[in-house]
Amino acid sequence: MALALLGALLIGTSLGLMGSGGSILTVPVLIYLLGQDEKIAIAGSLWVVGTIALVSGLRGAWLRQVDWSNVVWFGLPGMLGTYLGAMLGGRVASSAQLLTFVGVLTLAGIWMLRRPGLPAGRVARAPARIVVDGLVVGTLTGFVGVGGGFLIVPALVLMGGLTMQRAVGSSLVIIAMNSFTGFLKYRHVLAERDLHLDWAVLATLAGVGVVGSLAGGILGRRLDQRRLRRAFAVLLLATAAAMGATTIHGLVRSHESGSGAVPNHH
């Protein structure tokens, strides 16, 4: 549990610092450190991430770091996409979700390593592209249980015309909207499979994550964002490699045991 709490602190701190990144570690923490079923972990991740993002987003709103028009343009299509993604996630094998998750982790890591500095000034808004991006990110959120901040923040800067600070604040509100929408849909998925959430664990992780996010928000102006992003990208890529190897190994073993267990009807 100690490693899981450390992971929750890292998740929250990353969200507070960069408005992205940390939430993508919640699923691995719940599956590999706490031994939860994949469907339960995805649902629990959505609640934990939503709670942390909501508290941090409210802090950003209090400090006037949230652009509500962009939240509407991005967040409402994102909520629809999240609902559809959660619906799809409930109908496919957990291995398919995990492999998709590994792909998202890998892309996030590469993106954070290679992404150039985002412009600090305002650029022309592109509402139509924001809507499409919101729908795509929302679908990913619902399907694999990630917040999607690593896609939301640059989209808000490049297509929404926001400064980095306001993009981070707005991203947190959008992540909360998407995550809670996906979580509500996933409750039905769990009920159909007679699976149950461990609320004590989720509340503990969310509480530690909130402390980390508030600390991250305070530290954000003092630390080198570029170095932070690179270090976190390496962590994401290492996690993706470990998860990918574990998932593929499990699939191979399942296939082999299934092949060897064919009943003899003669």
Topology:
Elements (H helix, E strand, L loop, with lengths): L1 H17 L7 H8 L4 H25 L5 H22 L4 H21 L12 H18 L4 H10 L5 H29 L6 H21 L5 H36 L6
Helix pairs in contact: 1-2, 1-3, 1-9, 2-3, 3-8, 3-9, 4-6, 4-8, 5-10, 6-7, 6-8, 7-8
Question: Mind telling me the C-alpha Rg?
Answer: 18 Å
Number of helices: 10
The percent range for strand residues is under 5%
Element-level helix/strand string: HHHHHHHHHH
Q: Give a short account of the largest sheet.
A: none
* Low-confidence regions: 260-266
Distance between the termini: 50 Å
The structure class reads: mainly alpha
Proportion of residues in helical segments: over 70%
Mean pLDDT: 81
Per DSSP E runs of 2 or more residues, the count of β-strands stands at: 0
Shape: globular
Q: What does the model show?
A:
The longest helix is centred in the C-terminal third of the chain and has 36 residues, at 225-260. By secondary structure, the protein is an all-alpha fold. α7 (149-158) packs antiparallel against α8 (164-192). Mean pLDDT is 81; it is low at 260-266. It contains 10 helices and no strands. It is globular and about 55 Å long.
